[in-house]
Amino acid sequence: MAIVPALPPHQVQIISHFDYLSIDSQRRRVYAAHSGSQALVVINADTGAVLGQVETGAVHGNAVDDATGHVYTGDGDSGTVSEVDPVKMSVVNSVDIGHPIDALAYDPGTGRIFADEDSGTQVFVVDSHTFKLLGSVPIPGHDLEFLAVDPDRPILYQNIPDHKVFVLIDTHTLKVVKVVPTPELTRPHPLQFDAEYDEVITGGKNGIISAYTPEGKKLGQATMPTGVDQCVLDATPHVLACAGDGKLWTVQIERGAAPHLISSIDTGHKGVHTVTVDPKTHWMWTVWSGPNGDYVQAYKER
Predict the structure, then answer these.
(1) How far apart are alpha carbons 221 and 186 in whole angstroms?
(2) Which one-letter DSSP state was computed for residue 242?
(3) Facing residues of 136 across strands?
(4) How many CB atoms lie within 10 A of CB 81?
């Protein structure tokens, strides 16, 4: 199986750095953190056309509220968490965290937004209904990366690259309840939770991706391209789309066993390091910055 372009690239105005992507498959919108231009880019998920940019500050993490279609964003400079209405193309709520924010996850079960402190030691918790800061969770590490919500338990999974572990956070008590070592991984960045298979999938910059039970039992590991930054789960086929160092690739998740690499492509664009997946079309969306401009493009497997 090979990865090929699904659409031609579309240019995004203003040359700057990109970070995380997310998708609203129901409303057919892709969202990209255009950090350098301090905006959230809104993209048509069927055509790739750029619909607009919302000034949010230096956005990094972003997550969609499927119930409302609004997007929660985290600012890496001013240290705010905001709520974006992509129809009005405006910020409708914002709360000052006081610390730079990197990755971000939304838990529809509690209505809480979980926001990593960039190069810090805390996960901040915001109530999406009142847009008040509820508190923070002290983390045993000083380098936080991706995080994932468990839809069936009051648990948040959080990667800690400098300690080569992920932790389980109780989303009600806001305390770390378990630390799971992942010694085979160097600088683990991506982390996803497969709810149907009940597995935590985490990968390292050294080209290893592993599957664990939430209790910390290792199910197996596989090789993948090095330099991974972000992976996103396509839940129905249990496939991860991953990106890093200009490459895109897919990984098949297996129930109770090691994952395995399916396909990969070198896009030729060194700026490609983040990705999201459309569960409707299974297209992989990515962005990059280059000397000739900034672009968004969809890829697919064939």
Answers:
(1) 13
(2) E
(3) 124
(4) 25
Which pLDDT tens digit goes with each residue over 9-60?
999 977 788 999 999 999 999 999 999 889 999 999 999 999 999 999 999 9
* Enclosing domain of residue 277: 3-301
> What CATH number is associated with residue 211?
2.130.10.10
DSSP state of 37: G
Q: Bridge partners of 247?
A: 244, 266
Which one, of 177, 174, 98, lies nearest residue 137 by Cα?
174
31, exposed or middle or buried, with CB in 10 Å at 0-12, 13-18, 19+?
A: buried
What residues form DSSP beta bridges with 294? 12, 289
Q: Which helix (H) or strand (E) holds 252?
A: strand 247-252
Mean pLDDT of 197-220: 97
Among positive and negative, which fits the CA dihedral 23, 176, 257, 208? positive
Mean pLDDT of the chain: 96
Number of domains observed in the structure of the chain: 1
